[in-house]
Amino acid sequence: xxxxxxxxxxxxxxxxxxxxxxxxxxxxxxxxxxxxxxxxxxxxxxxxxxxxxxxxxxxxxxxxxxxxxxxxxxxxxxxxxxxxxxxxxxxxxxxxxxxxxxxxxxxxxxxxxxxxxxxxxxxxxxxxxxxxxxxxxxxxxxxxxxxxxxxxxxxxxxxxxxxxxxxxxxxxxxxxxxxxxxxxxxxxxxxxxxxxxxxxxxxxxxxxxxxxxxxxxxxxxxxxxxxxxxxxxxxxxxxxxxxxxxxxxxxxxxxxxxxxxxxxxxxxxxxxxxxxxxxxxxxxxxxxxxxxxxxxxxxxxxxxxxxxxxxxxxxxxxxxxxxxxxxxxxxxxxxxxxxxxxxxxxxxxxxxxxxxxxxxxxxxxxxxxxxxxxxxxxxxxxxxxxxxxxxxxxxxxxxxxxxxxxxxxxxxxxxxxxxxxxxxxxxxxxxxxxxxxxxxxxxxxxxxxxxxxxxxxxxxxx
Length: 462
What we know:
Elements: H1 2-7, E1 12-17, H2 23-31, E2 41-46, H3 49-53, H4 58-62, E3 72-74, E4 79-81, E5 87-92, E6 109-112, H5 120-127, E7 139-144, H6 151-155, E8 176-181, E9 186-190, H7 193-200, E10 207-214, H8 220-225, H9 229-234, H10 238-244, E11 265-267, E12 276-281, E13 296-303, E14 309-317, H11 321-335, E15 340-345, H12 348-361, E16 367-371, H13 376-388, E17 392-395, H14 400-409, H15 417-430, H16 448-453
């Protein structure tokens, strides 16, 4: 992939697919193509500055390459200056308006690292800045990972199989030509410049573009340095695994892709454990005729000494705010003080006040509050990985079918309160929520996250 990328003569070349396929490395090398020319200027964009400066990011990697060409790095301005006078700069486009900071610029070489993270407006605006006043050819080069909902997915669709979502190997690296119709703001494709000029006039200026598929096996050096990384990608939830390991541009979160009924073995007993938690997903609307309120759900889970997860019990009801409080307090009394209680904290002062109220209400119990982080799909990722490797077991109970139905239908089902509880329970027991958060809300509790993080990690054999 790296060789194809460096050899491409297309005006726009996009490479990627799998994570860790060496695409950023190739982009940095390609930007050094004309550094012997004093008028050469290159700008490589990443969506945010922290992504440039993060350990192992663009700046760190460039420090392994550009000094070998005699360049001097200026970390404050994120710029490399070469002996000839040529420059390679890194910049961000965090907000849509940031693109206007490049008004009037003439940039012979424009790079985008993770192009799918940029908007189409940002790309086409910078496309208009891709100019050269010298004899240096102008290029746009980009890397990407699959995102079926990005504008990029449509732009490179000719190179992607419409049914499977995988790149078509026989088309990888083959250039096509397009013209951008300004009046209709659309793109028309052709197999040659002559084809497009015959259709849209001799004065149209076709641009060449190509997509080059990248696989983790393309990064031989990286695989030698970190041979276990492929295993980490295989341990991802199915949607993320399809995208980042196999380069699938069509897969989306859908029912059956995160949990399947057969992942969960139903057993009659669980081993003794010193880490047990019940997490709650709160709703506060009582069921009445004609309404369909959310459910309040509480899931009790333990983690054994080998890192296995056991769901002991799930309670669900549609009750008023006062009923929710009574339900949580009664359940805590039945569970006993050895079971820690996890309460999600919504953003804002109201969420903080509610969390503090429950800490006070549950005085005498271990209470852990935590912010409701990210969307439901992201939060469910770690639990999905554990479930797929059959590492979550259910104790036999009347709630089994309801839970398995929710799991089968996640994230498309009407209700997902039990899955939200499952996600938070796994996070608490593995220490993901071990940060102190609002210390006032845990003043009466021990830190279940810290306790769970001392347990041996689960070793998954792939």
